[in-house]
Amino acid sequence: MSGTFSLHLLLLLLLSLHSSSGSMAALTTQTLDIPPQYYNPKLPAHALSSSKKYEGSSDLVHLRYHMGPVLSSPINIYLIWYGKWNPSQKLIIKDFLLSISANHRAAASPSVSKWWSTASLYTDQTGANVSRTVLIAKEYVDQLYSQGTHLTRLSIQQVIGNAVKSAPFPVDHKNGIYLILTSSDVTVQDFCRAVCGFHYFTFPSMVGYTLPYAWVGNSGKQCPEVCAYPFATPGYMAGSGPGALAPPNGDVGVDGMISVIGHELAELSTNPLVNAWYAGEDPTAPTEIGDLCEGLYGTGGGGGYIGQVMRDGAGRTFNLNGRRGRRFLVQWIWSPILKACAGPNALD
Length: 348
Ligand SMILES: *[C@@H]1O[C@H](CO)[C@@H](O)[C@H](O)[C@H]1NC(C)=O
Description:
InterPro entries: EXORDIUM-like
Number of helices: 7
Bound molecules: 2-acetamido-2-deoxy-beta-D-glucopyranose
Oligomer: single chain
Shape: globular
Helix content: 10-25%
Keywords: Apoplast, Secreted, Signal
Main location: secreted
Order of helices and strands: HEEEHHEEHEEEHEHHEEEEEEE
Radius of gyration: 19 Å
Protein name: Protein EXORDIUM-like 5
Strand order of the largest sheet: 4-3-6-9-8
Largest sheet: 5 strands, mixed
Pfam family, one: Phi_1
């Protein structure tokens, strides 16, 4: 749930064994085209790749449904820009969010909306699927840092509360996701040390209502080698580190956020009140559909490899296409059908 740095070695090993056979054939056919080309880069180890929380636990793959709701109506995102955001950064993120809906299937394959189709395989006890439609309902700008430049889990709720109280942000119990994004100068409780993003729900005492929300921070200036990996890798203080990959939209911090946003949205939609889809017996530390696949972006990932992804003519790495020709690198998510991590750029 928390975008923690869990890489479950066993799981990834199984995945790489499972999928190694398909990669050669696809490589050969791709070379006939001019770029983009498939490749599977091996990178220096992730700074916090082996989390104590999941290491050695075998209940990881027993993802279970706990009878709570999923987001089955068209999902309205209420977007909160906290701190200083420039228009080009906002556009990258909004293009990603607007690429999720099935009506943007026009995007080249493999597409963001096809990636989301794995999330829509999850249902609630009435048989209703997670919605394939994701909209940006409203935006709210908190550029004066109403709660300061350091946020805690509780002050994040305060920011949402302000947005809800000061119209035009409606209370949207049924379809709403409140997504708060902090700029690179904002520090957040546990950011970089334990999490790159998280989701939960608000408390009536703070916000007046119980509303599912997620936070994701721009790690560009604080810990790109942790939260914008693999666009920065451990090694050099301010540089992007040995072996770092070039980000698809030229912004290490924001391109790194895209995958974390995808991770949190997938989990929020399948486990909005933390009583629907998760693995593990402890609801205070659930392992959710994004956690299970962190660090995996394509076929044959694991053991330092991120999986088969694509590289364009300028050397920028991506695995998904979005609207308006945008490209993104987004981690895979767990499929309840395949009982494995899945993404539309799979080669097998
Ligand atoms: C809904 O979920 C079921 C069960 O996973 C799946 O078989 C079906 O294809 C899903 N429908 C859509 C529209 O995703």
